[in-house]
Amino acid sequence: MGEKIFDCLVLGGGPAGMSAALYAKRGNIDVAIIDITTLGGQPVNYLEIENYLGFPLIEGWELSEKFEEHINKFNIQKFTNEEIQNVDLVSDIKTIKTLNNTFRAKTVIVATGAKAAKLGIKGEIEFRGKGVSYCAVCDGAFYRDKEIVVIGGGNAAVEEGMYLTKFAKKVYIMHRRNELRADKIVQKRAFENKKIEFIFDSIPLEINGGNKVEKLIYKNVKTDEIKELNIQGVFPYIGFSPNVEFFNGQIVQDEKGFIRVDENMRTSEVGVFAAGDVRKTPLRQVITAVSDGAVAGMSAVKYLEEVEMLAKEGVLEA
Ligand SMILES: Cc1cc2nc3c(=O)[nH]c(=O)nc-3n(C[C@H](O)[C@H](O)[C@H](O)COP(=O)(O)OP(=O)(O)OC[C@H]3O[C@@H](n4cnc5c(N)ncnc54)[C@H](O)[C@@H]3O)c2cc1C
Question: What is the pLDDT of residues 295-310, one digit of tens each?
């Protein structure tokens, strides 16, 4: 990209990134989005969204397309198929290196999302969207009166398991140890829930079925006994990990790597903001991602205005 210095570079073109770019551009700054693939983010990969306000039922790819059509009206530069390799977020002028290019900017908004940790067992990929889901809030309603199994023992697994009892006839929670990692108060609520049955000391081995999930094969790790569970849904909740491999710890993250931000989406580094699933947040959804993006975009604009004002007063270089 030669010597060009963007006002703002948005890393990741999912819902958070597109929203951030829109708000930044409407604040009259020069903004570009970089993404490893095309724009759209996670929604492109799953079927239906039922909880985005204003759209009672919309295909993920269709909502992403609407987001992109919207930002296209604002002449925002897009650099797709650019995998971010490493970055310098600490210097005044930030540098982003992809496989093919080097980009420089006064501000950066990190919106690279997160990925669900995978079980890595047979059937997991084949049955994704056909009984295997990583999002109870999104897909729970499809399991009305069905029997399902949640894999994991932390807060997310137990809380999502309880959420799923709103729809499912029965929810098994399978954990590899003999006690849960979830907070005691969360555990207490789950133990009191009549629809939940715990399967401890057990690990999943294989998911199988016909067109949809029908069974989970699992093993008791204490007795080595192999068993079967007749279920129609498998929800792995063994964790999410943020897409932050390229940072090298340049900004403050929590113990799982999620970026810590304040209410203005400011990170620990001046001029660096984060939005969406990549940040530490209580809810990872499209609606919260676009909300974060809006705040981050506006914060980048305000930050640049402040820098410019201080430069005019001779306190800083613009
Ligand atoms: C199976 C499933 C179903 C879901 N269903 C729903 C639902 O029904 N409703 C709902 O509201 N939410 C749902 N969600 C959650 C929702 O998809 C996310 O909360 C939302 O997409 C987060 O947006 P984001 O922009 O923060 O991240 P993402 O959507 O993950 O976008 C991140 C972007 O960053 C890019 N990127 C990542 N790493 C790099 C890199 N190194 N270099 C360049 N680019 C990079 C990615 O290509 C991607 O485009 C679901 C999630 C899953 C997994």
Answer: 999 999 999 999 988 8
CATH architecture for segment(s) 5-115+240-312? 3-Layer(bba) Sandwich (3.50)
Contact 154, 239 (CB under 8 A): yes
Homologous superfamily in CATH for domain 136-236 = FAD/NAD(P)-binding domain (3.50.50.60)
Please write the tens of the pLDDT for every residue from 265-306. 999 999 999 999 999 998 888 999 999 999 999 999 999 999
pTM here is 0.82
- Which atom of ligand 1 lies nearest, measured to the CA of 17? 25
Look up residue 112 and give its two tokens: 């690279």
What is the arrangement of strands in the sheet containing 196-199, beginning at the earlier edge strand?
196-199, 170-174, 147-151, 233-236
Residue ranges lining ligand 1, Cβ < 6 Å: 12-17, 34-37, 41-43, 46, 49, 51-52, 83-84, 111-113, 116, 133-135, 138, 243, 246, 276-278, 284-287, 289
